[in-house]
Amino acid sequence: MPRTDRDERRARILAVVDCIPKGRVASYGQVAREAGLPRHARLVGRVLKDLPAKNPVPWHRVVNSAGKISLRPGSARQRQRLAREGVLFSRSGRIDLARYRWTPLDDDSEPSR
DNA sequence: ATCTTGACTTCGG
DNA sequence: TCCGAAGCCAAGA
Questions:
Q1: What Å value separates CA A29 and C1' B3?
Q2: Model pTM?
Q3: Interatomic CA–C1' length for residue A65 and nucleotide B9, angstroms
Q4: Would the Cβ of A44 be found within 7 angstroms of any atom in strand C?
Q5: Can you list the residues of chain A whose pLDDT is less than 70?
């Protein structure tokens, strides 16, 4: 069990990220809200940044509110992982959130529209 | 306690 | 659509 408040929040954030289905994405802010931590989008980013390589959580399914990859170095890797799951990128490198955004309860289902 | 950082977000122009 | 500014907030130093 998490001992500190910090570990507690970290665990909740990762739990949410772990729920994002293959082929769908969520924004940092969305993950924060669903983890019960509104206004903590940046915390989500920090947690993912410090994520051990061994951790299997689908960190690549988290993008910013503009539908773009926030990772500076390494964006190619994240993009490739998403593409491999069927997530299409626009010419400007953006993901159509209206189409790929994950909403709890949709838990699977192919992207529509 | 104070100041800086940043895998963020929203709002204007 | 593309910035820049402002708002936000936990961590580090």
A1: 26
A2: 0.94
A3: 7
A4: no
A5: 1-3, 106-108, 113
